[in-house]
């Protein structure tokens, strides 16, 4: 048998030290004033199963322990056993219980008399075994006694039923007490009941063994009449076990009641929180619905968006007229390379040279109006909810800042459509109306626009980044009759735009935009720039355009108001690599702002 743990030693030491005076009523061995022990130890020098203490020599308790072990020795000598009572573990106790059940089952099969069956009871080993294993290890010196009692009981019909019932009650009570101790370890009544049960077990086992194994002829003759005494001993154990079970059950019930109360409070708190959240959500839904209803009412007419833009920019123009205009130096500094056909030194250029450049660019002067009209015709595909996208853009602070500012600015409309579109989206529809509004303004307002979604077909003359830049340059040249392009070497272009390096196209655009006179406002609208992400070979030119526009906005002086608007009706894969700053982004969804 392995040595008990320090916890087991502490339990035994504390019990006998603190409750010595109460033990007199439980057992004759304690009918004396017990001296307080100096030490209490388990030693390996004694035979296994012997509890050895260091009390004074006249200590009756130590003698009683020796009697307990001598009882085990005597039984071992009188009856052939297939186990050693002094080295038993709980597994041996359970094994003896199993043997007893087998023996009882065989007897019931052989004996068909009603009175024999009435005096026997078959224990449910499946329920008793787990409970018996719950008995604490500090009772390890009782293993042999329990195993011996169960072993002897299988041949004693008179006491078998009571013994099995009693030890089932003990195991069940200890299992319940173990559960209660998990949340009530310091409960004094429970600990007291457990201590009493331990002592009663120790008190009862030796006389019970003597009843089952008579020591002499006289006791063997009287053995059939000892069942009453055995029942009385077992009643002590039952009483103590019931006391433990009752207290443990009360603790478990109290803990369950407290847990139920706490759970109820938590559920009520959660319910209250959910109600608050639902009320807030309802308020938000009410506000959004009111906004949608307002927008839908405004979109009932065919020209509603155009009227809204007119009203909106009418207010913007009034604000600008109140602020007045400013004068300053040229807006852009050109950075021409020595190898470029574009020279920064310029003089007035004849109109025929501009016409020649237009021929080299090869851009149809009708393509912009065709694109705008096509997008506007597609508006019948959108319901009022989709058309309300434009109205919500007008309500965005970043867009309003872009329209109101006197200087250069940049804004990116980042759309998240609820469904896919072929070539035209609700954002494209908004851009077409916006471009029309700008083109219908005073001559000092220049609107350059390009709808990338209208030029996605293979072989389209304006496909890709090169087509975008050629279109913007061509539109800018048509906005004024003269530009300072005298040093532009058209012959170096060899009569075709394909021979112009893309960087030179960008430099030419910067040069032209930088020469618009004081007081002009140039709007550059590029819709559905995601279409340029279809081919990886376009990526360097794509980023060259984005970098150029960003630099132009940053370098623009007070002379010129250059405003760039780029849209992505769907999520832009390339722009997500270098996110647009929040103050320059207008995130929208169909039917409302994000």
From TrEMBL:
Compositional bias per record (Polar residues), positions renumbered to this chain: 325-343
According to the record, the signal peptide region is none
- Keyword Cell division assigned to the entry: answer is no
In the UniProt record, does the keyword Cell membrane occur?
Answer: no
In this chain the Nephrocystin 3-like N-terminal domain maps to 389-568
Q: Name one Pfam family in it.
A: NPHP3_N
Coiled-coil segments: 234-294
Q: What superkingdom heads the lineage? A: Eukaryota
* InterPro entries found in the cross-reference section: NPHP3-like_N (IPR056884)
Q: What is this protein called?
A: Nephrocystin 3-like N-terminal domain-containing protein
């Amino acid at each position: 048998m392995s040595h008990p743990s320090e916890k087991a030693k502490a339990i035994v030491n504390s019990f006998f030290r603190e409750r010595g005076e109460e033990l007199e009523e439980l057992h004759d061995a304690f009918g004396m004033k017990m001296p307080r022990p100096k030490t209490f130890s388990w030693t390996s020098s004694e035979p296994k199963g012997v509890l050895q203490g260091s009390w004074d020599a006249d200590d009756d308790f130590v003698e009683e322990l020796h009697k307990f072990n001598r009882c085990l020795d005597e039984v071992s000598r009188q009856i052939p056993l297939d186990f050693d009572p002094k080295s038993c573990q709980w597994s041996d106790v359970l094994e003896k219980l199993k043997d007893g059940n087998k023996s009882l089952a065989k007897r019931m099969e052989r004996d068909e008399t009603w009175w024999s069956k009435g005096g026997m009871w078959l224990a449910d080993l499946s329920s008793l075994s787990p409970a018996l294993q719950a008995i604490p290890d500090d009772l390890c010196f009782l293993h042999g006694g329990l195993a011996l009692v169960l072993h002897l009981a299988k041949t004693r019909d008179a006491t078998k039923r009571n013994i099995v019932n009693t030890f089932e009650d003990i195991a069940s009570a200890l299992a319940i007490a173990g559960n209660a101790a998990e949340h009530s370890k310091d409960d004094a009544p429970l600990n007291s009941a457990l201590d009493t049960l331990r002592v009663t077990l120790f008190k009862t086992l030796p006389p019970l063994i003597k009843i089952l194994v008579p020591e002499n002829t006289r006791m063997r003759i009287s053995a059939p009449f000892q069942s009453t005494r055995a029942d009385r001993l077992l009643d002590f154990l039952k009483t103590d076990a019931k006391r433990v079970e009752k207290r443990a059950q009360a603790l478990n019930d109290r803990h369950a009641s407290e847990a139920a109360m706490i759970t109820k409070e938590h559920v009520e708190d959660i319910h209250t929180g959910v109600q608050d959240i639902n009320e807030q959500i309802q308020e938000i839904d009410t506000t959004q619905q009111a906004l949608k209803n307002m927008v839908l009412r405004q979109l009932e007419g065919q020209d509603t968006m155009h009227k809204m833009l007119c009203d909106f920019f009418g207010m913007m123009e009034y604000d600008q007229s109140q602020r007045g205009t400013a004068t300053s130096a040229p807006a852009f500094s050109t950075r021409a390379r020595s190898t470029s056909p574009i020279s920064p030194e310029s003089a007035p250029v004849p109109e025929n040279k501009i016409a020649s450049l237009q021929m080299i660019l090869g851009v149809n002067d009708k393509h912009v109006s065709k694109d705008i009209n096509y997008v506007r015709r597609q508006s019948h595909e959108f319901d009022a909810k989709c058309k309300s996208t434009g109205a919500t853009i007008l309500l965005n602070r970043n867009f309003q800042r872009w329209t109101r500012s006197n200087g250069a600015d940049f804004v990116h409309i980042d759309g998240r459509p609820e469904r896919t579109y072929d070539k035209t989206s609700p954002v494209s529809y908004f851009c077409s109306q916006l471009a029309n509004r700008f083109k219908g303004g005073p001559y000092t307002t220049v609107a350059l626009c390009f709808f990338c979604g209208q030029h996605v077909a293979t072989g389209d003359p304006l496909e890709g980044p090169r087509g975008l830049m050629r279109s913007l340059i061509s539109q800018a040249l048509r906005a004024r009759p003269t530009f300072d392009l005298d040093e532009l070497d058209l012959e170096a272009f060899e009569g075709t735009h394909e021979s112009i390096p893309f960087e030179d196209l960008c430099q030419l655009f910067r040069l032209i935009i930088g020469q618009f006179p004081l007081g002009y406002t140039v709007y550059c609208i590029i819709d559905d720039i995601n279409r340029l992400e279809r081919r990886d070979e376009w990526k360097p030119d794509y980023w060259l355009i984005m970098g150029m526009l960003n630099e132009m906005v940053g370098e623009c002086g007070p002379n010129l108001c250059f405003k760039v608007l780029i849209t992505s009706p769907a999520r832009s894969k390339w722009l997500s690599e270098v996110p647009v700053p929040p103050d320059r982004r207008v995130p929208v969804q169909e039917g409302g702002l994000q």
